[in-house]
Write a structure and sequence with these properties.
Length: 177
């Protein structure tokens, strides 16, 4: 499967296909910030709204294609404040339900980690629904559990669920000067 980093133009061109991936992820029960059922038009609009952040360099998005449609995606949100340029957040790691179990999520995560390290980021963080399959992925990929926040986010059915925070050191350590 080929993984590519999207620029803003390509993100806009693929917004409908990415929306189908997002809808599939939410329909599959993943807590990625949306309630089910997620309207496709709303998912397309959400992806299109990301184009500005991609163009500005505040968000990097990679997509893995399975033929001509996205099988998975991951994002890296980069802060714009001077005191936080050493860190980034892994966001919206999603794999289409029929593409799961083949290492795609792990590959996308590794892509984001490597890209973060290459651009000088030394600390990554993320959050995920406590008890979700994603937790096993993060732990097995060397991420450290920082703690749990109860009732942090609603799952796709609107039920408040706890969220686990994770972090991982990547790249070369830099000293504050």
């Amino acid at each position: 499967m080929k993984t590519v980093r999207l620029d803003a133009t390509r993100l806009l061109a693929e917004a409908e296909e990415l929306a189908a991936l997002l809808v599939d992820t939410v329909d599959g029960g993943a807590s990625v910030g949306f309630l089910a059922p997620l309207d496709t038009a709303d998912a397309v609009a959400w992806w299109r709204e990301r184009a500005g952040a991609v163009a500005a360099g505040r968000l990097a998005v990679w997509v893995a294609h399975d033929g001509h449609r996205p099988a998975g995606t991951v994002g890296l949100a980069l802060p714009d404040k001077p005191n936080s340029r050493h860190r980034a957040e892994v966001v919206k790691l999603m794999v289409r339900r029929d593409a799961r179990g083949r290492g795609l999520g792990r590959g996308l995560l590794a892509t984001a980690e490597a890209a973060a390290g290459a651009c000088g980021v030394t600390l990554l963080h993320l959050d995920t629904e406590t008890g979700s399959p994603a937790e096993r992925l993060y732990r097995s990929a060397g991420w450290t559990r920082a703690g749990v926040i109860p009732d942090y986010a609603a799952d796709p059915h609107g039920v408040l669920r706890p969220t686990t925070l994770y972090y991982k050191h990547v790249g070369a350590a830099r000293s504050a000067g």
